[in-house]
Amino acid sequence: MDITVVDAHGLPNHAFLSVRVGETKRLKPFRPGEAFSFAKGQDANGYIQLDVYEKIGSHMMHAVDEVTANETDSVKNVNIPLDNGRQAIAAKIKVAMTQPKAANKPSDASGTKHQLAIAAKKYMDLYDVWGAVQGMLAQLLNDQPADPLGFMLGYITNLHQGRIIVPTADAYGVDPFPVGGKFFSIGGDEAAGFPVDECPASMPDLSQHHSIMAAVLRCNLDIYQSSSKLVTKSGVTSARCLKPGMDITGSPDVPTVGVVAGDEESYAIFRDVFDPVISRWHSRSADHCQSPDAKHPTDLQVEGKIAEDSIDPSGRYVVSTRIRGGRNVSGFRFPTACGREERTEIERIVEKAVESLRDEDLEGEYFPLTGMDPEDEADLESHHLLFQKPTSELQIAKGVARHWPESRGVFAAESKQLVCWVNEEDHMRFISMGLGSDLRGTFSRYARAVTGVEATLRKMGHAYAYDEHLGYLSSCPSNLGTGLRVSVMMRLPRMAQRSGFHQVCDQLGLAVRISPELCELTNSDRLGVSEVEIVNTVIAGCQKLGLLEQQCSA
Fold first, then answer.
1. 243-267 burial, b if ≥16 CB within 10 A, otherwise e?
2. How far is CA 212 from CA 248, 277, 281, 314, in A?
3. CA angle (287, 293, 294) in 5-degree steps
4. What does DSSP say about strands 428-435 and 318-327: parallel, antiparallel, or unpaired?
5. What is the rounded average pLDDT for all residues in the chain?
6. Is 181 exposed, middle or buried (0-12, 13-18, 19+ CB in 10 A)?
7. Residue range 119-146: average pLDDT?
8. How far apart are alpha carbons 380 and 367 in whole angstroms?
9. How many Å apart are CA 550 and CA 554, to the nearest integer?
10. In whole angstroms, what is the distance from residue 232 CA to residue 263 CA?
11. Of the residues 110, 327, 467, 533, which has the fewest C-beta atoms closer than 10 A?
12. Distance (Å, rounded) from C-alpha 510 to C-alpha 504?
């Protein structure tokens, strides 16, 4: 990366200009048009610091002359004369002659941060450390033990003694993964457990299952029988849609949806299952869900629609903003059900569409997961732009781990402020992000990306999967409507300690997740409200929380 200061006015005589990107600084006398060069990857999330220094004095000496043939170092007292007749600075200079140090590490582990990241990833992949950690966390969240640290210690002990099988280091093969006594596969065709071709004649016992789907089926046993033989035109069965909720018991504290759509027609053919699940999950949008003729509003306009007021005028509370939204291409099965050739065609279409983006903050490059250059992979990983191998029980049961990592990839803007994941749980998942409190700018970037891709898709004869009542169609019913997840990371240490904090957030239309140092605020609604309404709700809610935190600090 080259940064060039084309011109500057008002600089003092003998000025030095410093440019800092991340932890790297370049300092030189100012000369118009001269570039400051930085290595690839040193983008510091888009932040560049400029400093101006003025030389007030100097002294020059020859280093070699200060050390004799019989010495290894020399200490010399020097006076550095200052400009404008000021008193000189007395300094003591030590010049030491050193021998080059012998390399004591392999070359591939002692170079740039990228090389270190590559070496670290190779090591983690070799022993599949991430697979073990993800397996442990998945089981931890599933079991919810009273002593989580003791559970983790026991899990690792059993793993080390060979009592637990984790995915192997071969990211392209079929990896055995134990779930509740059943073996699931990553990279293969279908996971074991509940069949995907046809539902069994009798509904399995769901008395210990904690999902919205399980609750719906327990309340009305006829739904299982009436939908069990139905199939969409593209071949998606009700069994495939029900599989996640049948295989995964879940937790009573964090119930899952339990059902996925295999294509856009799933929501109509299996309406008896999906409609009550959607109504329960999107309970805040009850009026919309209970009115079949109600149309979901869509609005991606920024100018004149999105509030221009700063979320955080003081700059003390908001750390970053992020917007995520999914899209699928109409006419193709979703990643939960599509076959190899279908997934490859989707990748081809989406790659062409995303690489058509030309705005300065959107233009970028598509990186397929298969055969990705290690340095590109390390770069994307260091910016947290890659999506991870689907090793969780739920992801495997959903079917999104089939044929991994074939025909998956990441489109990353050069600005590193926009990414599009291809063939993850939906055909496309757009993510726009930025440091600071400019949620309006983050939404603008997201809106321009999804509308730009849509325009290219239409030129190619394709469109987004969309329903007038349900909005943009996703493989998971939780992401229907706008499919929008607006996230603001805030420092609210005093508010977070208050007992009614969650209720305050709920009244503001926000959900909150609290970590030791930060609070993540997200929109509660997705269905029956427009994108503009959601973003303005989050802006107003976060503004209010900032004021309340300020009052608590007074």
1. bbbbbbbbeeeebbbbbbbbbbbbb
2. 12, 6, 7, 42
3. 45
4. antiparallel
5. 84
6. exposed
7. 69
8. 9
9. 6
10. 8
11. 110
12. 9
Instruction: Please report, as a single letter, which amino acid is at residue 146.
Output: A
Nearest to 380 by CA among 392, 391, 368, 390: 368
**Total Cβ atoms within 10 A of residue 169:** 15
Q: Are 346 and 336 in contact (CB under 8 A)?
A: no
Instruction: Judge whether 519 and 512 are in contact, CB under 8 Å.
Output: yes
The answer to whether residue 371 scores a pLDDT higher than 50 is yes
SS (H, E, C) 166-227: CCCCCCCCCEEEEECCEEEEECCCCCCCCCCCCCCCCCCCCCCCCEHHHHHHHHCCHHHHHH
User: How far is 124 from 122, CA to CA, in rounded Å?
Assistant: 6
Residue 67 above 50 pLDDT? no
Burial class (CB in 10 A: 0-12, 13-18, 19+), 461: exposed
Give the H or E element holding residue 286: helix 286-289
Contact residues for 157 (Cβ-Cβ < 8 A; gap 6+): none
d(CA 537, CA 528): 14
CA distances (Å), origin 33, targets 2, 4, 6, 36: 11, 6, 5, 10
Tokens of 217: 């089926």
Of the candidates 360, 346, 491, the residue with the CA atom closest to the CA atom of residue 421: 346
Kindly report, residue by residue over 196-246, the tens digit of the pLDDT: 999 999 999 999 999 999 999 999 999 999 999 999 999 999 999 999 999
Q: Which two tokens stand for residue 332?
A: 């193709």
Contact 176, 185 (CB under 8 A): yes
Nearest to 432 by CA among 381, 487, 378: 487
CA atoms within 13 A on the CB side of 285: 30
Cα torsion angle, 328, 333, 336, 340, sign? negative
Q: Round to whole Å and give the CA distance between 66 and 95.
A: 7
Helix H or strand E encompassing 37: strand 35-37
Distance (Å, whole) CA 359 – CA 346: 23
- Considering only 23-37, 103-117, 148-162, 319-333, which range has the smallest mean pLDDT? 103-117
pTM here is 0.70
Beta strands in 339-389 (DSSP E): 364-368
| Residue 190, token pair as written in the block | 């279908």
Contact 409, 351 (CB under 8 A): yes
CA dist 406 and 368 (Å) reads 9
Q: At what angle do helices 374-382 and 113-126 cross, to 10 degrees?
A: 100
> Does residue 84 have a pLDDT over 70?
no
> Distance between CA atoms of 38 and 20, rounded to whole angstroms?
9
| Residue 287 backbone class (left: φ over 0; alpha: ψ -120 to 50; beta: rest) | alpha
Which two three-digit tokens encode residue 49?
Answer: 């610091």
Phi and psi at 241, nearest 5°, equal -70, -35
